[in-house]
Write a structure and sequence with these properties.
Length: about 110
């Protein structure tokens, strides 16, 4: 099982990034997928989640109307489009797959700074 995140980096406040998470080794379409983040000195928190069929999503209040989660089951990939980024969005972003078990990626660092 592998979840490999990509797309992180340094961006100025107000900018955008698109994270990707490529999955392999399990039946991707059967799993709910989520993005979590962990800022320095803070606990890991849920950012956004999408059901296995892709029709239902939910977001942390802090990112609503700025972030969009989506998935492509044909490509075994989940995305997180992040717009209007703020310094407080700085964190390591982790991909998560959940059904009866949880799988985690190693994370990708997003730094929002001028």
């Amino acid at each position: 099982v592998q979840l490999v995140e990509s797309g992180g980096g340094l961006v100025q406040p107000g900018g955008s990034l698109r994270l990707s998470c490529a999955a392999s080794g399990f039946t991707f379409s059967s799993y709910a997928m989520s993005w979590y983040r962990q800022a320095p000195g803070k606990e890991r928190e849920l950012v956004a989640a999408i059901r296995n069929a892709g029709g239902s999503t939910n977001y942390a209040d802090s990112v609503k109307d700025r972030f969009t989660i989506s998935r492509d089951n044909a490509k075994n990939t989940v995305y997180l489009q992040m717009n209007s980024l703020k310094p407080e969005d700085t964190a390591v972003y982790f991909c998560n797959a959940q059904r009866t078990v949880n799988f985690w990626g190693k994370g990708t660092l997003v730094t929002v700074s001028s």
